[in-house]
Structures are given as structure tokens and as C-alpha cells.
Design the sequence.
């Protein structure tokens, strides 16, 4: 299958033909980290250059370049959003994004007219922004559950697949919202249908992620497991942190006069269709992250402890940016969203408008490790779990490797990978950090205060599909990084490995932490909830990595 968007020009910061003197500070920092990490300097491959991916020749995973992106962005083709593609692409480029996914809400107008019209605009946006990887996706209303990101690799049938999926399987369009077993089964059938479209070659690739999974408490543990099992390699994980991170910024709250505001718009309570096994605390974010991710030994760890990768991401879920002055465009007389399939371009009022989001790349970032620059390569990196996420531009760059002995480290095993060792082998974690060296978009120079090593035992598939606990997972070490700056390396011995396990990292600016949700013995310095209307996101920033598995033989 031939298509013009298989790979594109290198991002500006990675293109050796672009002088370093012309890069902004973020681009210069990323290029420096890439040169330090990749043998032979810059060697990202594109279809045009047919270059070979950088590698050192040593055993283990390849050296990676980290592309920054956002898989959950809305435009005026969603009924509750307002921006043009060019506005979002320009903002993304300004804020250092290499890739983004436009995920419009399912809607009759979108299905009938909007998706096709949107596709024409995306094709034009790709042509105008050749250094950005711009995906078309959909925010799926999952039957009997929350929302999900669905997106395909660019190709001749990408929009046809999305429209057909929306028509066949969307809960909102088909009236399948109720918490009924038959609707849960429809979600599973929908995912199997998607997986079949990938396996039969109708599209080159497809990915699905569960969005804001704890917001309403309606994504039960058995549903998350069912989605993963129905389409492994397609359903790859969930949002570790939701968008709408500006909702409880005190200055914004004071300006708009709101009450009960929470980061992520997580200001809900259990409903009749919520899973009864979730505690009341799960309806709030912790350090801006979803309770499932933020709780050490909680739902995310329960999935990981089964021995199967389940990744996390972070994103803007951009609809309406705080302090933005644009309002919705004026509908033509006699028209509405359903009749048009979109909204007209927004109008600048000069006065701040309602909103709770940040621009793509402004606050939340997902970093994906690749050896080539292209659409399929970003999707492959996400599928492999080669990803870490941060808020507030907490660090410029991060590379994590697990090595099995002191004599033959090689490149080691990176995020999402599996290191196989003999029982009793000593294992070491090698972490390379490039600290933030410029103010973030809020004007604050971030500081990484600590990195936490989290370790969990692999116990195999859970016999209780509604369990959200991983009792053998805990923080095993905290490393003080508050005095470190520039590019530095940490070597963290993990001792002799006697049973299969996984290792993941978490870090923060050190401003707000305390005993984790499951107690200080499990997590002595974890993220916390904040009071209503008092959740300054820029003063409470965290990063999380996906895990690395250790398989004992």
C-alpha cells in the first residue's frame, strides 16, 4: 500500500542541516541529549533519507530519540471545542510537539459530514506542517464505559475506517450507554473488529487508549482487562493523567468565579453505574494524575503485575484553553453542529473565555522513543511502551535502561522492554537525565527534586477480574536529585533478582507530597489530592515512566 505520509522530514531540532544557533532553547537541549545518547550523532531515519537508525552495536535495545506528542486534541469538528487545525498545529510547533492526534467526539454531524471534511483539512495541515506528524483519530464513546482514543496510521482508508467504526460501534450514536452486560460485550466486539481491520491490512496500524478512566468511576477493572485481552497490540493502555489540568488554577478560578474545581475536571461522585469497588478518593486526581496511575499498588500496578504491558500517556484533551480570548464562531442562520458537521472558525474577543485546558504541549507531554521519524514509528514506540510522561516541562530529557550485570551492560533494556536473567542475577538501573534549563511556558524554571523507583512482583493473571490491588508493589528507593543539573547519570543497584518483576520510575518537583493512598509503608512520598479551587498545576508537577520487566528463568 503506497501513501505519501509514511515518513516526513526530520523535526527541526533533529535535522543536522538546521544550525544549532537557530534553535530555541528546548530544541537545542533536545539535540544535545540526542547527540549524547546516539552513537554517531543524529541519525533519525526518514523515507526520503533512507538513513539507518542509530545504534551502538552493543547488545540490548537501540538508542532512541524521544518525540514529544499529544494523542487527545479537539478542534471545531467537535461539538464542544472551537479551534482551527492551524491554530493547534502552530501552538504545538511553538511548544515543541513532534506529533499530535486530533480526536473529535462522536456525533451524528461528525459521522455524516464532519469526519470527511476534517480529513481534507488534516491532509492540508500535514502538507503545511511537514515536520509535524498529524494523525486523525476519534474520541470513542465506549459502550457502558468512558471515552477512548482511537487512531489509525495515515493511509487511503484512515477516515473511512473511523467513520465506519463510529457508525457501527459508538455508544452515543447507538444508545449503548447503559451499564449492561450486553453493552460491555459490544465494547469487546468493537475492539475485535478494529483489530481485524489491522490484521487484514485495511489500515497499516491502529491504537486505542482508555481516556480519563477514573473520572466517573464507570471503567471497572474487569472492563479494562477485557479491552486489553480483546485486542492486544491495539488496546495499549490508558491516560495516566487527564487533560483539563487548568480547571483548578486559583487565579483562573478567581477570575471566572467557579466552585468545586479540580485538576482534570475530576469533581464527580459515584453514580448508579459506577463500579462500587472504587473508593471515593478515586474521583479526584493526585498530583494531577488519575488515581489508577497515581496509587502505588493500585489499578495500574494490578494490570502490570499480571505480566503484560499496559502503558500510560498524558495529554491536553484540548477543547478550550484557559486565558484564551477566542469564542465559538457564528453558525450560519438555520444551521447547527449536526447539520454542518462542524463549527465555523473561532472569533477573537480580546477577553478571556471559559476554559480549563492547556494548549497541546504547553503542560502535559508524552515522550515516545523511536529510531526513525514517521507515523508508524511513533505508533510502534507507543505499542512497545517506550514512553514517559511529564507535566510542566519538568525535565528536558530522560533515558532509562535496565542492565543485568556489571560486566556486559551493553545498551540495556529500555522502557516497555523485558530483560531476561538467571535467578540471582544482579540488576542495575541506569537513568540519564537532562534537567530543565529554561523557563517553562508558565515562566517557571522546573526542578526535578527526586526520582522514585517503584518495584512490583509479577504474579500472573488475576483470578479476580475486578481486583484493583497489587499488594507486592511499593516504592523501593527515592533518589534526591535536587542539587543535580545539566545532563547527569544515575546508577541504581537493585540487587539480586529472585522472582519476575517490573520496575518503573516516578519523579516530582518536590512541592507537594505525603503518604500515598495505600500508606507510607508502600509509598512514603506520593502525590496528593488538592482542595477544591486550589490546584495550581504549575506548582505540583510529576513525571512517570512506563515499566521495564525482568523475567527470571
Sequence:
Amino acid at each position: 500500500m503506497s501513501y505519501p505520509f509514511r515518513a516526513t522530514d526530520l523535526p527541526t531540532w533533529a535535522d543536522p542541516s538546521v544550525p544549532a544557533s537557530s534553535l530555541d532553547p528546548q530544541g537545542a537541549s533536545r539535540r544535545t541529549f540526542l547527540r549524547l545518547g546516539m552513537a554517531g550523532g543524529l541519525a533519525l531515519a526518514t523515507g526520503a533519507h533512507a538513513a539507518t537508525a542509530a545504534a551502538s552495536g552493543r547488545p540490548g535495545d537501540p538508542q532512541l530519540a524521544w518525540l514529544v506528542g499529544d494523542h487527545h486534541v479537539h478542534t471545531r469538528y467537535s461539538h464542544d471545542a472551537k479551534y482551527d487545525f492551524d491554530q493547534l498545529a502552530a501552538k504545538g510547533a511553538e511548544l515543541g510537539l513532534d506529533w499530535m492526534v486530533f480526536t473529535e467526539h462522536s456525533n451524528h454531524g461528525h459521522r455524516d459530514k464532519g469526519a470527511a471534511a476534517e480529513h481534507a483539512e488534516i491532509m492540508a495541515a500535514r502538507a503545511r506542517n511537514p515536520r509535524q506528524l498529524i494523525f486523525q483519530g476519534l474520541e470513542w464513546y465506549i459502550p457502558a464505559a468512558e471515552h477512548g482514543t482511537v487512531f489509525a496510521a495515515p493511509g487511503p482508508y484512515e477516515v473511512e475506517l473511523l467513520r465506519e467504526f463510529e457508525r457501527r460501534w459508538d455508544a452515543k450514536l447507538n444508545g449503548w450507554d447503559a451499564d449492561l452486560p450486553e453493552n460491555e460485550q459490544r465494547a469487546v466486539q468493537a475492539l475485535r473488529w478494529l483489530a481485524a481491520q489491522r490484521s487484514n491490512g485495511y489500515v497499516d496500524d491502529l491504537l486505542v487508549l482508555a481516556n480519563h478512566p477514573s473520572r466517573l468511576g464507570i471503567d471497572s477493572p474487569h472492563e479494562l482487562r477485557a479491552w486489553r485481552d480483546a485486542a492486544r497490540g491495539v488496546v495499549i493502555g490508558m491516560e495516566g493523567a487527564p487533560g483539563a489540568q487548568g480547571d483548578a488554577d486559583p487565579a483562573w478560578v478567581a477570575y471566572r468565579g467557579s466552585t468545586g474545581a479540580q485538576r482534570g475536571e475530576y469533581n464527580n461522585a459515584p453514580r448508579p453505574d459506577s463500579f462500587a469497588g472504587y473508593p471515593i478518593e478515586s474521583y479526584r486526581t493526585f498530583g494531577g494524575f488519575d488515581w489508577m496511575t497515581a496509587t502505588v499498588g493500585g489499578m495500574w500496578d494490578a494490570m502490570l503485575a499480571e505480566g503484560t504491558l499496559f502503558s500510560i500517556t498524558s495529554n491536553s484533551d484540548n477543547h478550550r484553553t484557559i486565558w484564551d480570548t477566542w469564542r465559538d464562531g457564528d453558525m450560519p442562520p438555520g444551521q447547527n453542529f449536526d447539520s454542518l458537521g462542524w463549527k465555523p472558525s473561532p472569533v477573537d474577543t480580546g477577553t478571556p473565555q471559559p476554559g480549563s485546558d492547556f494548549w497541546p504541549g504547553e503542560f502535559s507531554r508524552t515522550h515516545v522513543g523511536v529510531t526513525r521519524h514517521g507515523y508508524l514509528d511513533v505508533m510502534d514506540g507507543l505499542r512497545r511502551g517506550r514512553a514517559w510522561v511529564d507535566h510542566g516541562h519538568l525535565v528536558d530529557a530522560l533515558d532509562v535502561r535496565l542492565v543485568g550485570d556489571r560486566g556486559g551492560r551493553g545498551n540495556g533494556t529500555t522502557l516497555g522492554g523485558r530483560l531476561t536473567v538467571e535467578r540471582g542475577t544482579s540488576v542495575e538501573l541506569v537513568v540519564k537525565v537532562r534537567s530543565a534549563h529554561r523557563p517553562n511556558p508558565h515562566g517557571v524554571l522546573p526542578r526535578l527534586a527526586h526520582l522514585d523507583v517503584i518495584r512490583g512482583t509479577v504474579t500472573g493473571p488475576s483470578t479476580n477480574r475486578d481486583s484493583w490491588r497489587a499488594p507486592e508493589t511499593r516504592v523501593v528507593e527515592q533518589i534526591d536529585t535536587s542539587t543535580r543539573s545539566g545532563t547527569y547519570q544515575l546508577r541504581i543497584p537493585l540487587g539480586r533478582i529472585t522472582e519476575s518483576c517490573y520496575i518503573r520510575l516516578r519523579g516530582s518537583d518536590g512541592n507537594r507530597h505525603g503518604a500515598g493512598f495505600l500508606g507510607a509503608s508502600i509509598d512514603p512520598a506520593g502525590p496528593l489530592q488538592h482542595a477544591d479551587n486550589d490546584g495550581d498545576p504549575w506548582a505540583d508537577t510529576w513525571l512517570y515512566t512506563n515499566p521495564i520487566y525482568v523475567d527470571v528463568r
Summary: The first helix runs from residue 25 to 37. The longest strand covers residues 425-435. The mean pLDDT is 92. The CA atoms of residues 246 and 356 lie 5 Å apart.
